[in-house]
Specification:
Length: 346
């Protein structure tokens, strides 16, 4: 008994002095301890039975029936541009063939469109012909385009669309109109002296005074604008003094916000970049310039600008300082200045 007890003590001493890694590898020591003491470290080995100790359920979730997530244009949208794609998004990956077979459009016709899949959940519908644009003067709403997808459409999991889907939108209408100027807000601004309603010329005087002119148009009657297709400013030239295009540079137009024509309005900041018009006037007649970008800006901010489009004409250089008058004089009478716009509206 004494010898056995001593061996046991020595074994415990050796275990205490041996690194853990060595103890783990020495199965003889472990077996002796288990045999002699009937005890040992807790068995932490992985359970090979396959039971999930964490309680996580690895069972796959059942497949869901597909639905329409959204469409573009949205259902009920107005003022859709005629060249816009129609896109349908699904909540589940779809079987392409079944969706295409279930797709229809009364407005576009059976063979009036093609399709393209951006992904298994995104379908683009491409009209073969440009959608019709109706004139706003002839119709109070745009052409209606409908899209329908029946319950024959299935997901890749084989589940059918729960119910037939339908959506429709209205194409933008065309609107072309010419506007005459607003008399009280159209006139000349000088670098010195008061503003002059009733005078419309641009350039400089012999005494060095620089002149600009502002033409104002009220577009309140225009329906909600989707896009400005074109806008052109036309003014009749009555006289050219000196050589303003040689001495003062380009004659340009910018957009301004001037509630009242007064002397301080000469320094009003431009709201947009300047649009440069023709670089000369070879003979008296109409001077015109494309101001589409300026009118487009005004239409996006029409509430803040009170539906007014104010176009300021000014030369690149304020004055030539040559003691000579270099100026372009325009008629200010009914019909000129005139702003003609072609728009897409709701």
């Amino acid at each position: 008994m004494t010898i056995r007890t001593t061996s046991t003590v020595l074994l415990f001493a050796l275990a205490a002095c041996t690194p853990a890694s060595q103890v783990d590898d020495d199965t003889q020591v472990d077996d002796t301890l288990d045999e002699d003491t009937g005890s040992g470290t807790e068995d932490t080995s992985v359970d090979d039975t396959g039971a999930d100790d964490t309680g996580t359920d690895d069972t796959a979730a059942p497949a869901k029936a597909p639905e329409i997530a959204d469409t573009a244009p949205a259902d009920g949208e107005r003022g859709v541009m005629p060249n816009r794609l129609i896109v349908v998004h699904f909540t589940e990956p779809m079987d392409h063939a079944s969706v295409e077979a279930a797709l229809s459009s009364k407005a576009l016709g059976e063979d009036g469109f093609t399709v393209a899949w951006g992904s298994d959940t995104s379908l683009s519908i491409i009209p073969k012909a440009k959608m019709e644009v109706l004139a706003a003067n002839d119709s109070d709403k745009g052409e209606e385009i409908d899209i329908r997808i029946g319950t024959g459409a299935r997901s890749q999991a084989g589940l059918a669309l729960a119910e037939e889907f339908s959506s429709s939108f209205q194409v933008a209408r065309s609107y072309t109109v010419s506007f005459g100027y607003e008399p009280t807000l159209t006139g000349r601004l000088g670098s010195s002296g008061p503003a002059t309603v009733g005078s419309f010329h641009v350039g400089d005087a012999a005494n060095g005074t620089a002149y600009q002119s502002v033409a104002t148009f009220d577009l309140e009657e225009v329906p909600t604008v989707v896009e400005v297709d074109q806008a052109v400013l036309r003014i009749e030239v009555s006289q050219v003094k000196g050589n303003p295009f040689d001495t003062l540079g380009d004659l340009g137009v910018d957009l301004v916000d001037i509630p009242v024509l007064k002397e301080s309005a000469y320094d009003a900041p431009a709201l947009t970049a300047t649009v440069v018009g023709p670089d000369s006037i070879s003979e008296l007649g109409t001077w015109s310039v494309d101001v589409t970008s300026l009118v487009a800006y005004a239409m996006k901010d029409r509430v803040a600008l009170d539906d007014l489009v104010q176009l300021r004409l000014a030369f690149e250089e304020a004055t030539s300082a040559n003691d000579k008058s270099d100026v372009v004089m325009f008629y200010r009478e009914p019909g000129t200045p005139k702003l003609t716009v072609s728009l897409f509206v709701e």
